[in-house]
Specification:
By secondary structure, the chain is mainly α. The chain is built from 8 helices and no strands.
Length: about 210
């Protein structure tokens, strides 16, 4: 029992640290909070949390083993995720690259821009490189949580389900704070370019270090 408790404590620490550090989900929520505010970003968060939890359940119940036997599949996922992130970086940079007159009221997102829906955010998890790395790694490293696969899967899924909203909240609040700064056109351009650069760097790092 003490050994199991120590293993779970290690897993809980892993879940918290990996969920709160920069990654595609957190960066996208930061950007959405800055562009649309916290209320309109809530469906994005719900989709992210639930979609990730479903992935945890699927991987820990056997999908992770299947992918481990087919490393090419993980490469496809990694490159697809990187392509999505580069597209997102371009979308973030577009308002800042427009003429100054178009960004004077930069507190508002472009007319055709919409926050990500819950379904879109949930589906994004399946091409999110960091999500796959986290889950596959955790499934292998913390197999000692339980000798019963279903019990281990439930425990890991519920833990990530509880930890994720806590870790996402600071990124949403930071994005909402940026939205206030974006009342100033010059600030908006700098913030948009900075976020686009961070997201693009994440995509490149995903491919290079994968």
């Amino acid at each position: 029992m003490p050994e199991t408790s120590a293993t779970y404590a290690a897993f809980l620490t892993f879940a918290f640290v990996s969920s709160i550090t920069p990654g595609p989900n957190n960066l996208m929520i930061l950007a959405s909070g800055a562009a649309f505010g916290w209320q309109r970003t809530l469906p994005h968060i719900v989709g992210t949390v639930l979609g990730f939890a479903i992935m945890v359940a699927a991987v820990t119940l056997g999908l992770g083993t299947l992918l481990g036997q087919n490393p090419d599949a993980l490469d496809v996922i990694r490159y697809a995720g990187a392509a999505w992130l580069l597209w997102l970086a371009w979308r973030l940079a577009q308002p800042a690259l427009q003429a100054p007159s178009r960004t004077a009221s930069a507190a508002e997102a472009p007319a055709d821009a919409r926050p990500m829906t819950a379904m879109q955010a949930a589906l994004f998890q399946w091409v999110n490189p960091k999500a796959w790395t986290m889950i596959v790694g955790a499934s292998a490293a913390f197999s000692g949580l339980s000798s019963e696969p279903v019990e281990r899967s439930v425990l890991m899924t519920l833990t990530f389900l509880a930890v994720a909203p806590i870790c996402i909240a600071p990124w949403l609040l930071a994005g909402n704070a940026f939205k206030r700064l974006m009342m100033n056109g010059a600030h908006a351009r700098l913030i948009s370019l900075a976020m686009a650069g961070i997201v693009a760097a994440t995509a490149i790092t995903t491919v290079v270090t994968g």
